[in-house]
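Bit of a strange request maybe. I'm writing a small parser for structure token strings and I need a real example to test against, not something I typed by hand. Could someone generate the tokens for this chain?
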Amino acid sequence: MKTLIVDDEPLARDRLRSLIGELAAGGAAIEVVGEVGDGRTAVSAAAALDPDVVLLDIRMPGMDGLEVARHLARLPSPPAVVFTTAYGDRALEAFEAAAVDYLLKPIRRDRLAAALTRAAALSDAARVSRLAASRSQAGTRTHLAANVKGRLQLIPIDEVRYLHADQKYVSVVWPGGEHLIEESLKSLEEEFPERFLRVHRNTLVAAAGIDALETGDDGDSYLRLRGLNVRLPVSRRLLPEVRRRLRQSP
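Reply from user aminoacidic:
Good idea to test on real output. This should exercise your parser:
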């Protein structure tokens, strides 16, 4: 069973690697395929290494373990997640994120062995089902994940300028370029209702980045965004709501 260790503390990673080594020496079919020290790198490493299980710390700087788990749930072959933490107050959130187990530090070998056995026993179909169900209970993310030339690109939500739907893909436009994600515009609108404003059936705009609402020579309405040489059409049906939101903006 391929295992990825994620913890911002080197000593904690050493401890887990040592315990796994002991379990492997005792006959367990398990190997460490990677170790990383932060959440953003963990998402990219999981996409590249395709582990069966991720031993994931919850409290890390930047992207915490709970958000990492939400991104892992969206991978084509999502791994089982076992949270490892010094704090017992996040257990409910951990299991809502479809964790297989929740281990408190200092981690004992027998508890780790039991968690890994549970992860190995969970079928691929059951794991995907659990992870899919967890998405409806997940909190708001701070990043979106796009697959760029086989590499996972994490895009900070607060840098996204607008989202445009085209068939089953959504284009994310941000200062780093334009990338495709396999998420629906509707789900993004529901997850980030305060940040994004629907201006067209196929477009969401970051409300904070709107520069002006204009009327074109054709009589239709368009939005200009700060720092972008683009005019986005506003549908007549949504125009009253767009105007209302703009009036409320500071």
